[in-house]
């Protein structure tokens, strides 16, 4: 399944399928991007990050893709599991700034 | 691995009261960040400190202040509380260690503040 970020805040996928969560960022001065997973009542948990000099980065079951031309970021989760159910936020860090700017979040729901 | 510690985890206050939230960063992290997350919202950056000096400022109200101490822990002081201050407040820390890179912000579990 695939989300379009701001316009589709909930993504429902079957267990075992791949998930794609999308994010559009606004600031061309951003040079560092992070995906966080947030479970209900908990703090954002770091998943994977990517710098602006890269297009793709892979982790364990996750891949982040960065398209600077259209200012688009995506998170791919392979073989989605029940434990992946959470809200996923992309965050960007502008060059010279400390604070992260978060996107609106996508709620990933895993169907058995 | 040690994580960011926040206290208290829950806090209930009346309007116009004050509140102090505490944050203990990951050991050897030198930068602390504060964020506010309203219900169903994304986290909003408030303020950050590096080596005990304020390093960046976001949408922090004038009624709020913060500081970082010599042991790198940080406190967020909130005065004249309003109903709209009810939210989750997260602290994050960053720094270079064997397990973490300089830029990545690691978040604590948050303090849930309820203003009645």
Order of helices and strands of chain A: EEEEEEEEEE
Structural class of chain A: mainly beta
Which descriptor suits the 3D outline of chain B?
globular
Mean pLDDT of chain A: 90
Overall 3D form of chain A: globular
Let me know the largest β-sheet of chain A: 6 strands, mixed
- Gap from first CA to last CA of chain B: 37 Å
Discrete helix count of chain A = 0
Helix content range of chain A: under 10%
Report the uncertain regions of chain A: 3-8
Structural class by helix and strand composition of chain B: mainly beta
Distance between the termini of chain A: 14 Å
Assess the beta-strand content of chain B as a share of residues: over 45%
Elements of chain B, N to C (H/E): EEEEEEEEEEE
Helix coverage percent of chain B: under 10%
Protein architecture, described:
- The complex is a heterodimer of chains A (about 110) and B (about 120).
- In chain A, about 0% of the residues lie in helices and about 55% in strands.
- By secondary structure, chain A is mainly beta.
- In chain A, strands 1, 3, 4, 8, 9 and 10 form a 6-stranded mixed sheet that branches. Chain A has a 4-stranded antiparallel sheet with strand order 2-7-6-5, with no helix packed on it.
- The model of chain A is unreliable at about 5-10 (pLDDT under 50).
- Chain B is an all-beta fold and about 120 residues long.
- Chain B has strands at about 5, 10-15, 20-25, 30-35, 45-50, 55, 65-70, 75-80, 85-95, 105, 110-115.
């Amino acid at each position: 399944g695939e989300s379009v970020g701001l316009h589709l805040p909930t993504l429902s996928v079957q267990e075992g399928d791949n998930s794609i969560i999308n994010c559009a960022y606004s600031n061309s001065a951003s040079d560092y991007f992070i995906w966080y997973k947030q479970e209900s009542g908990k703090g954002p948990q770091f998943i994977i990050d990517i710098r602006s000099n890269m297009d793709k980065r892979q982790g364990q079951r996750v891949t982040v893709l960065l398209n600077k031309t259209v200012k688009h970021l995506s998170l791919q989760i392979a073989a989605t599991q029940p434990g992946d159910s959470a809200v996923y936020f992309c965050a960007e860090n502008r060059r010279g700034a400390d604070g992260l700017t978060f996107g609106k979040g996508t709620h990933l729901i895993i169907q058995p | 691995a040690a994580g960011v510690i926040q206290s208290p985890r829950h806090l209930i206050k009346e309007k116009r009261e004050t509140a102090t939230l505490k944050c203990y960063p990951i050991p050897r992290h030198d930068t602390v960040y504060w964020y506010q997350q309203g219900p169903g919202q994304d986290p909003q950056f408030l303020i950050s400190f590096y080596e005990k000096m304020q390093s960046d400022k976001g949408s922090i109200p004038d009624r709020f202040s913060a500081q970082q101490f010599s042991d790198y822990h940080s406190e967020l002081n909130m005065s004249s509380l309003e109903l709209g201050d009810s939210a989750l407040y997260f602290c994050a820390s960053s720094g270079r260690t064997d397990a973490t890179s300089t830029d990545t912000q690691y978040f604590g579990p948050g303090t849930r503040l309820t203003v009645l």
